[in-house]
Design a protein that fits this description.
Helix content is 49%, strand content 19%. By secondary structure, it is of the alpha+beta class. Helix 4 (127-174) packs antiparallel against helix 5 (182-199) and helix 5 runs antiparallel to helix 6. The longest helix has 48 residues, at 127-174.
């Protein structure tokens, strides 16, 4: 009973994902007198800080909530405005208040907030320094991504080596031969298969495009688990198979 519980626990752990692979979704909204009237969304890789995230308002069109007509100027319907108790919110960015807000219709539909207002009311900072830090952090993240992918290929290589060892032992046993080194090949196949399984739980993917590497580790884990079990079985038969009898002495 205890053995069955351990096996079931291992299987549940193996099929449970360690990390949700997703980018950062950023919501943007404008509230007028306590009610949301404009909304929009953007996204990034999680690297930019509030200084940059807030300024997504300059390029992200906002859609009006159903049932709310944006007041426009009679002479130029492409220009809108809001008056009242206005709150502009940008997730992971900042929040600012105003009593009047100028809008400009976006080419693809929706509304863009006056870029000058966005700049004046956004978090202070140095654009050049902010860009430098973003570049540095992305370079660091890229190195982590490459390391994770490299280790994933190592996991696949370990599983492949385990299978090669198992198939070699099976081939030798199938043709009716026995060699003293077969047991060591089984041990090596068991170890490399175990390494492939272990790599599945070493490290975590941090980025959306790590899904391929994450899947490689999952495939390697299952291949390594099967080959490890096969290595144990072949080791058992290799130990039982006796070598050819030595000819009697003179």
């Amino acid at each position: 009973m205890n053995r069955s519980c351990w096996i079931l626990s291992f299987c549940c752990l193996a099929i449970t994902p360690t990390t949700v692979l997703a980018g950062r979704v950023i919501s943007l909204s404008v509230e007028l007198n306590g009610k949301q009237v404009l909304w929009g969304g953007s996204g990034d890789d999680g690297v930019p800080r509030p200084y940059t995230v807030w300024r997504y308002l300059k390029t992200t069109p906002l859609k009006q909530v159903e049932g709310f007509p944006v007041p426009t100027k009679l002479k130029d319907p492409s220009e809108g405005f809001l008056k009242g108790d206005i709150v502009v919110k940008v997730q992971y960015g900042a929040e600012a208040r105003a009593t009047e807000l100028r809008l400009k219709s976006a080419p693809g539909g929706g509304w863009l907030i006056d870029p000058q207002w966005v700049e004046v009311n956004g978090p202070p900072g140095d654009a050049v320094e902010e860009e430098r830090q973003i570049t540095t952090r992305r370079a660091f993240n890229r190195s982590r991504r490459e390391a994770y992918l490299r280790d994933s290929f190592l996991a696949v290589g370990s599983a492949a080596a385990s299978w090669v060892g198992c198939l070699t032992v099976l081939a030798v046993l199938f043709i009716g031969k026995s060699r003293p080194w077969l047991k060591w090949v089984c041990v090596a196949a068991l170890v490399t298969g175990g390494i492939a399984v272990a790599w599945r739980f070493i490290g975590s993917p941090y980025f959306p495009d790590d899904e391929r590497a994450y899947e490689l580790r999952s495939y390697a884990m299952w291949a390594g688990a099967v080959s490890s079990g096969l290595a144990v079985v072949t080791w058992f038969f290799a130990c039982r198979r006796k070598g050819p009898a030595e000819p009697p002495g003179p």
